[in-house]
Amino acid sequence: MLVLITYDVNTETPLGRKRLRQVAKLCMNYGQRVQNSVFECVLDAAQCREVQYKLGKVIDKDKDSLRFYYLGNNYKGKVLHIGTKKSFDVEGTLIV
User: What torsion, rounded to 10 degrees, do the Cα atoms 13, 14, 18, 23 define?
Assistant: First the structure.
């Protein structure tokens, strides 16, 4: 299923900037960045629980915010992109 992960991390302190880098790095392991704090991730249920758990351990729940949007398996018709930053089909063929 396609899961959109969005986050807002308070970066007023050095610890906040460190959390921001950790959250972004973790998200990169699961999907592709489509905007600064937005990742599209094709995950199964176990991967989804895993990334939620890992991100929940990184953020400061009093200062930061995470959102998970579940677009399901039939997501291709639900996503409209206009503008720069073309994405690639994560379920398509990869030629190296």
Answer: 10
